[in-house]
Amino acid sequence: MKSCLGVKVSTQNDFVHCELGRLDMNSYAIINVIKYWVKVINSSETKYINIMYKQMLHGIARYPNKQNWASQVKDILIKLNFEDVWTNKKFLISLLYTRY
After folding, report:
1. pTM above 0.85, yes or no
2. Which of 15, 17, 56, 100 has the highest CB neighbour count under 10 A?
């Protein structure tokens, strides 16, 4: 990739990937987690996935120091400055269904 761009071999890989519009594996993993989270919160109330998600939310409220999948999603969103999306999930759902 570096030879295609005509840069030195010592150029950092992150810069090369950014120039080519590629993301690192961690970024892809975060994107997939958030996509799945959106799918979970949009699922029917009777689906097992939604029931388990609500149990995890209860666990976050009851045991704030314990980690579960939902708390990790919350931490990711907070780290990315999207805490308002976590706290106002109804806004996210309405945004997803808004047609332009």
Report:
1. no
2. 56
